[in-house]
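Minutes, project check-in
Item: structure for the 265-residue chain
Input as provided by the requester:
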Amino acid sequence: MTAILSLLLVVTLSIVVTRIAAVALRHTGLARQTARFQARSAFSGAGFTTSESETVVNHPVRRRIVLTLMLLGNAGIVTAVSSLILAFVADGDGDTLGLTYKIVLLVAGLVTLWAVASSQWVDRLLSRLVDRALSRFTSLDVKDYEGLLHLAGDYRIAEVTVEPGGWLEGRALRQLRPADEGILVLGILTGDGEWLGTPAGDSHPEGGDTLVVYGRTQAIRGLTERRAGDEPGHRAAVADQDRVAARERRHAERDAAAQPADDQP
């Protein structure tokens, strides 16, 4: 019985540690899903080598978080395996629980922990607690970038590869006018690895470059699929963005009108 409770405690601590690390990684600028994947990968020692992993390793704060996870993960896995073995071995201290009862207890405990860990309410509560702790006890720049950029619904940050013969190749940004389509170019990663942050209007993306953009999913998809010279496609995208902007203004005006007078500035 004691060994099973110890195992469940180790699993609980593992879930909490990886969730805390995922929140901390999010506050360094990683997307939610990327942060969770990297936290679990580091804790379990899976060692996935992806471009996302490189962004973690090359960032000093993220690297410290991941190194701490690796240390805790090694200790946690060893402890969990030891507890699992002891849970099904008679230890001679009066533990006479049957094998079936032990299995049922262990499965029930793991299912309960999984349900709690998957709860959105628990996720929000834990995120708030971790935010406060990070703000108070660390010098980490604690900002919810997903919240700041409203990365929900139809808006996201994406990487767009400049394809040969595509709309983006060989033309200055001021000619492409992506902002008219509701797309902001945050940076350009050139084919030789040079990073151009907040590129000027005279920047010329070339084939093989990668643009980091912010905007609506549909607008970004249209930008990547458009071929060179497709001016009608550009005009259609601009018109669609005008409709979206008008709809968002109407929603904002309606929300402002519905707000109680005492709450308005």
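Outcome recorded: The chain has two domains: 2-137, 155-258.
No further action items on this chain.
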